[in-house]
Design goal:
With about 180 residues, the protein is an alpha+beta fold. It has 3 helices and 4 strands, in the order ααββαββ. The N and C termini lie far apart (about 100 Å). The model has no long low-confidence stretch (mean pLDDT about 85).
Length: about 180
């Protein structure tokens, strides 16, 4: 008679309670492990994003001065700025090898500037000079004004007696803000 009670209350119920506790602990441990793994994954993604943002910020900080300079360049009136730059470039080159013969502002943009939503203007220059000197002048102009995009370049021999001189006709699109 006491035997059943002892087995039930002394062995079976404690085993069932222990099994339930072990099962509950295993379930809670599984939840905690899953939550930890999820947080570790989130943290590693966050850390990758943070390091990427720091790398981009470092790159941007190195280019900040160029950005400010380019914005100032875009805010200036293009026609007068090109004229000023060409005058300064022409002063550094030999006058017999580089002469500006014409300069005009086109009524509309040429090339890609005519179909782009970005504001732009067309500029046409005529020069007379040696190939090397005019090439150097173009390089200097495009270095000073990166907003210029070459649309057309036409080179003809000069009809005068100096065979080393060429006639250049250049059309640029000047991007503006």
């Amino acid at each position: 008679m006491y035997k059943q009670s002892i087995i039930l209350f002394g062995i079976v119920i404690p085993i069932v309670i222990a099994a339930v506790l072990i099962g509950a602990c295993a379930f809670v441990r599984g939840k905690i492990t899953a939550s930890f793994d999820e947080k570790v994954l989130y943290y590693s993604g966050y850390e990758n994003s943070r390091l990427g943002a720091l790398a981009i910020e470092a790159q941007i900080s190195r280019q900040r001065e160029d950005y400010v300079r380019w914005n100032e360049l875009l805010e200036q009136e293009t026609f007068s700025l090109v004229t000023t730059n060409l005058r300064a470039i022409g002063e550094t080159l030999p006058p017999k090898e580089f002469q500006q013969t014409a300069f005009e502002r086109l009524g509309t943009s040429a090339g890609i500037g005519s179909v782009s939503a970005q504001k732009s203007s067309g500029l046409r220059f005529n020069f007379r000079g040696t190939f090397r000197t005019v090439q150097k002048a173009f390089l200097e102009l495009e270095t000073r004004m990166p907003n210029l995009q070459l649309q057309q370049l036409k080179i003809d021999p000069n009809s005068s007696t100096e065979s080393s001189l060429l006639n250049f006709q250049v059309t640029y699109t000047a991007w503006e803000s």
